[in-house]
Write a structure and sequence with these properties.
The protein has about 270 residues and is of the alpha+beta class. The protein has a single domain, classed as S-adenosylmethionine decarboxylase, CATH 3.60.90. About 20% of the residues lie in helices and about 30% in strands. The strands form two sheets. Strands 1, 2, 3, 4, 5, 6, 7, 10 and 11 form a nine-stranded antiparallel sheet that branches. Strands 8-9 form a two-stranded antiparallel ribbon. The longest helix has 20 residues. The radius of gyration is 21 Å and the shape is globular. The protein starts with 12 loop residues before the first strand and ends in an 8-residue tail after the last helix.
Length: about 270
């Protein structure tokens, strides 16, 4: 197939947005506090920066600038600006750090010459129950030939992903040499097409796509739970069977509510 000849450059914007949720069961207020502190340390801005730099490498992007920040009391953000092609040194804004961090901050933003990568974290607990949840929001926005979908599997496996909610959208248009508009530069049917088959087997996944508008939405919920992966500072072998059943029910309810986007009333 002949390569499409463009008038100017490919200025389609392709954006992949993630919400990834990790659920934990904490039996006491002290455990909830300890869990939040643990998550805040495990996913600090330095680690998040490394994840985004790995993403930039996977999608073949050049890093122009990184901004990061850790927040008080909890949470972190990173933003990276990237470019499709290497930018000549004399063209780079003097305020850009080219990925060489000199300041210690808690959030990170990375800038690309045409695109950006961002990540924000949100640890939280239930006010009355033992459920604690960690949410991470990630945006991979690119222009030109580079595709954010290349980083899908890496991002899924970079976190403990109980629920994954993803949106992919192509914005704008680019013109060929005859002036005709092109609203997409690649075939696309579902975000699931870019996820490894072995990973998909672990999840229940549903799509809600508007193919004619280049909008794709996929939700994934883990199929099976190993209770020890959800307990904090205790093993399931230390618990009574009745307590295990109670914890299973609460974890399942939390994951289902996040997946379906609604509160599920308690059965009386």
């Amino acid at each position: 197939m002949d390569k499409l000849r463009l008038y100017g450059f490919n200025n389609l914007t392709k954006t992949l947005s993630f919400n990834i949720y990790d659920v934990c069961y904490t039996r006491t207020k002290a455990e909830r506090k300890a869990y939040i502190e643990y998550i805040d340390e495990q996913y600090n801005s330095d680690r998040l920066t490394k994840i985004l730099l790995d993403v930039a490498k996977i999608i073949d992007a050049n890093v122009l600038n990184i901004a990061k920040q850790d927040y008080d009391p909890v949470g972190a953000s990173v933003t990276i600006m990237i470019s499709e092609d290497k930018v000549d040194e004399h063209q780079i804004d003097a305020s850009c750090n080219m990925g060489k961090l000199t300041l210690q901050k808690e959030s990170v933003v990375t800038h690309l010459d045409k695109s950006h990568l961002t990540v924000h974290t949100y640890p939280e607990t239930h006010p009355d129950q033992s459920i604690a949840t960690f949410r991470v929001d990630i945006d991979v926005s690119t222009c030109g030939k580079i595709s954010p979908n290349k980083a899908l599997n890496y991002l899924i496996h970079s976190f403990d992903s109980d629920v994954i909610i993803m949106d992919y959208r192509v914005r704008g248009f680019t013109r060929d040499i005859d002036g005709n508009k092109h609203f997409r530069d690649h075939d696309m049917h579902s975000i699931q097409d870019y996820i490894d088959e072995d990973t998909l087997k672990l999840y229940t996944a549903i799509d809600m796509n508007l193919d004619h508008s280049n909008i794709y939405h996929t939700k994934m919920m883990l199929n099976q739970y190993n209770l020890d992966n959800y307990l904090f500072n205790v093993l399931s072998s230390d618990l009574k069977d009745s307590e295990k059943l109670k914890i299973y029910a609460e974890i399942n309810k939390e994951i289902a509510e996040i997946f379906y986007g609604m509160n599920i009333p308690k059965m009386k």
